Amino acid sequence: MIKRHYPSFHEEVLILKLKNGMQVHILPKEDPYYSTYVELSIPYGALDLNYQVGDQTFETPYGTAHFLEHKVFAMPDGDAFAMFSKMGVDANAMTSYNQTSYLFMATHHVTEALTYLLKMIDTHYVTHDNVESEKSIIAEELKMYLDDPNVVMHNTLMEHLYFNHPIRYDIGGTLESIQRIDDQILNHVYDSFYQPSNRLIVMAGKVDVQEMVSFFKTYDQENPIKHVKPKTRYPKEPKRVRVKYHVEKKPIGISKMMIGFKLDVKRLNPKEQIKREMAMAMMTQLLLGPSSSMFESLLREGLINQQFSMSTNIEKNAESITLYAESNHIFKLKKRLVAFLTGEGEQALTEDAFNRYKKVFLGQFIYALNNVEHKAYLYGKYYHLGSNLFEVVDLLQEVTLLDAIAIYRELTPQRLSILIYKKA
Amino acid sequence: MITLQHDFKTIQIALYLIDVDDQKHTTHRYLLPRLMAASTDHYPTRQQMNQALEDLYGAYFKVRTERMGNLSVMSFVLTLVDPKIVKDQHLFQQALSLFDDVLHGHRSFSQDVFDDEIRMLIEHWKTLKDNKRGYASYRFQSTFFEGDLYGYPISGDLKHIKAVKKEDVYSYYQTSFQQQARYVVINGHTDGLDLGLVERMIGPSTSMTHPLITTFRSWKPKEPIIEYTDMQQAIVKIGYILPIYRCDALYDACVILDTVIGGYPESRLFKIIREERGLCYDISSNYDYYKGVLTISSGIDLDQVDQALIDIQHLIKHVIEDGITDDELLHAKAYYMHQVKSSLDQQSVLTRRAFVRDMLHYVESVEEKLIKIGAITKEDVHRAAKLLTCDTIYVLRGQKS
After folding, report:
1. Which of A81, A88, A370 sits opposite B10 (nearest CB)?
2. What is the pTM for the complete model shown?
């Protein structure tokens, strides 16, 4: 067992590396603490549509990772969700672009729930019938999102930014693509990606470390499979955007706009990539965050409301910055924002604001550590990115204002796509 | 002042202000905490206020107005990092000073900030129909609670929002703000911090003089309300009257009943309507113990709405007639106990709970609570279930596919 201490944050990580390739990272909390949070994650997500095993390549429909996440809960003796609930344990799962996570929060029956979680992952119970019956449930989930204009706009903007990259499609796929998913596809994906060597377990909160060491030793002996990781292949993606500008009239209460910048993908090592992600996030806050002059002016001029937001998205082979706004003066707002984001805004990137925002980042990191779920999620995320959550603060110190300015200069009109839903 | 000594990495300082809910001041009470936290005499713009918070390592205020029975509660919760972690000995005092400013530093409210708030509220109302789920909740709420303040929007309606003046809200701040019952909570690793300073700057707690009243009307016959719009699903909401309240003996049995009906993935709604029949993705129930009602919500396949309505009501009828099984009781109790215990690790829950317990004079310990849950019987739950009466059915839907 490897032990790592992070005294400045009063944190400790214990790492178990199993012979079958699985890793278990424990972030224990001292008593009094009641909850144990367990997250098992697999670096297989919505973007892993085309993959290679040996010499063979496989193409899967959009939404396959999310569909498999649903079906992992299917067990020969019923639904695993119900079994967790019977133990008095809160279970859940989520699929992102890059990973699928299965998790639970328990205040008792931790070992039983962990045993069952692993049994659930190891028992692949997918049949023609249970795949077909799941389609109607997933279709309702997708329709729920399709009734939300913000989700529809985001999906449309991604389609406008990208020609081929799978980020064009919703994580859940489409009503049409899920119909093409069958038991054979799910079986192959499961066999390729869900082997122990691809799994990370993060446990946080109240943990009996000795009991867990013994538990995983036994598990390792019983599951000695070691597997080679499949390789995901991405289609070639042009640098330019697919649709630069699109306006559509809609029966909505107020006009809405999304702006997206498609950035060049930098081939960076994990640490440099995390620094780039932080610099990107800081830049957006300095430009248009609630403490920026531009945000204050737009608000004062009645051009934006509380729905205004910006986000940075760094995924495998796809990087973008997106912005969402609602306005009664949408074209005036568009003009102001485009000018600001593609030239005039650089003056907002000052040393003072940058240093202030570094303090905010440090604060946000500490807030995240306060919540075991958030902490374990971030820990897993940075692990799969090839880094360590607790090293992120050190990396933060290395990010400079020049990094933020360099990213700002990537925001050129050629990389820009604008989508407007104009109130009919 | 209530002090909670917990080993969190952040410190929360919270102030809760309580008054009797009344329609006349609904918009005032909604706007007041937002205006107070957005700017002060010392930080006259939102930008300056936000910069001040960023300087405190991104400390943040959460302000809100909510209803609890007949009462209206305004809350101001400031969260900041533990000064010991960032080794900043001035942080706590600076944060308190900012809190003091938010509460007391207003010779008037900024007209700009007021205008922005009103404009954004009006825009929120204009876009309500764009958010189908939000709109369905609003429509259901105003129908189910028609004639009751719960049916009136927490921000006031559009007519009142447009009519309210900055001077009215400021006058309310001057005359009513200081007179309300107030509860102060500090929660976190507070060793070595000057807690006396909290009372000096935020003021002491005072007790509530108004009793908490939890009542609702009796059942009224009404036809289901079905509204059509452009959407892919149907959002179904069914309101049941369940006249058992927070202080009643059967309260915990009602929580179990809600859990069994639609409170978790082993619930009957989830297992039967979603898993067995495949009619929906999301379905759940929610018990409001201040109003004595249970609401079922779901997004249903458009072609199956009629069947789903029949199935859901049949499912509830079955619970009313036959109660729940031994297994259901056992599992729902385990889940409820887990919820109680896991909430002890959540700072915001603990902060709010400390205030509610103090306000309602609850002295029950967690251990006592768990024993009480353990003692609930199937008969208790069945007694509660027999009081369920279907009252309001609301459906927002698209045309059939």
Report:
1. A370
2. 0.92
Nearest to B172 by CA among B16, B15, B33, B14: B33
Per the DSSP assignment, residues forming a β-bridge with A74 are A79
Q: What is the DSSP string of A189-225?
A: HHHHH-SGGG-EEEEEES--HHHHHHHHHHHHHH---
* Domain B225-397 indexed as CATH 1.10.10.10: no
Read off the amino acid at residue A268.
L
Residues in Cβ contact with A221 at an 8 Å cutoff, skipping those fewer than 6 apart:
none
- What pLDDT, on the 0 to 100 scale, is given for residue B191? 87
Question: Where does residue B125 rank: exposed (0-12), middle (13-18), buried (19+ CB within 10 A)?
Answer: middle
A91: contact with B, CB 8 A cutoff = yes
Annotated domain spans of chain A: 2-232, 245-423
Q: Is the pLDDT of residue A172 over 70?
A: yes
The answer to whether residues B171 and B190 touch, using CB atoms and an 8 Å cutoff, is: no
DSSP character for B259?
I
Residue B214: predicted pLDDT: 86
pLDDT tens-digit readout, A248-296: 999 999 999 999 999 999 888 889 999 999 999 999 999 999 999 999 9
Domain spans of chain B, in order of start: 2-202, 225-397
The closest alpha carbon to A111, from A2, A3, A210, belongs to A210
Among residues A215, A233, A234, the alpha carbon closest in space to that of A223 is found at A215
Taking the CA of residue A26 and the nearest CA in chain B, the distance in Å comes to 18
Q: Which of A 129-148 lie inside 8 A of B, CB atoms?
A: 133, 136-141, 143-144, 146-148
As a CATH number, domain A2-232 is: 3.30.830.10
User: CA of B257: how far to CAs of A52, B200, B274, in Å?
Assistant: 50, 45, 19
* Average pLDDT of the segment spanning A329-350: 96
Coil, strand or helix at A51 = strand
Domain A245-423 has CATH 3.30.830.10: yes
Burial class (CB in 10 A: 0-12, 13-18, 19+), B327: exposed
Question: How far apart (Å, rounded) are the C-alpha atoms in residues B182 and B179?
Answer: 9
Return the CATH architecture of domain B2-202. Answer: 2-Layer Sandwich (3.30)
Share of chain A above pLDDT 90, in %: 81
